[in-house]
Amino acid sequence: MLSIGIDLGGTNIKSALIHRDEGIIAQDSVPTDAGRGPDYVLDRIAESVQNTRNKATEDPVGIGIGSPGIISLDRTTVSNPPNLPGWDVVNVNEELKKRTGLDAVVENDANLMALGSSRYGEGQDLDSLIMLTLGTGVGGGIIINRELYRGATGAAAELGHVIINFDGPSSNSKAKGGVEAYIGQRFLIRNALPLIKKHPDNTLAKEYLDKPEALEPVHLSREADRGNNLAVQILSEAGRMLGYAIVNYIHILDIRNIIVSGGVAKAGDWILEPARAAARERLLPPYLEGFQLSYESLGNDAALLGAGSLAFELLANHR
């Protein structure tokens, strides 16, 4: 059985042909050209679907789409997605059905990372897990008893906006001091720059103070690998704040398996070990049993696999 998974981004539209047992068997990518409006972008999605569909040996059961923005409870409509101008409210299912003949279901992209990990990745042997996507911002997804938890209206798991310091810095949230303000890529770098300025002889200052926009977490982890104590300190502080957030997630949900993905997570144990230590220090004793913090090696493929999985689970009986 085959499905098509779509990762709708502001820059590129990625699609994958998903085999229910084998995972990704073919991929395609086209530019989004988001500034040209919803109809044009929907045509581009249909183009990518057809490119992928041409590689199939049987007709896919349907399309699963990971999208930013607010997703309707029935998974048909996207509202006000960032980086997609003009998308006030778009019924993606109707629009793609007209263009491709296939039914489509849409879900928050971070939720699909969680679903993809649960079905094909680090979480496939787990009944319940919390996924944290540590990228430009911080997103999340929750799997409970092998099912995606969506909340009362479908908007659950905005885990990046959980407050860990109500007087803390701002991020993409009305509330200050959310975990995203410490571990989201742009905010981690923003917080690091004042400390880097205090060490003008450090490699990080020499290479990036004149071009701070070029500094990314991967550069910090490389410097940490080379023994740069300043880089270690910066990543450790970000990891510590992540650990505090994890304490809140576990105490609320009683889910002990935390999986991280995204560009910031590629810093690996430079962030994850301080996060584990901070969480273990503050978790109530009953919650320590079974606590695990791990990295999802599938990367962005997890979102495509999650999108394909959603199509299998919701559309296979519609054929």
UniProtKB/TrEMBL annotation:
SUPFAM superfamilies: Actin-like ATPase domain. Transmembrane segments: none annotated. It holds the Pfam family ROK. It comes from the Bacteria. Belongs to the ROK (NagC/XylR) family. This is ROK family protein.
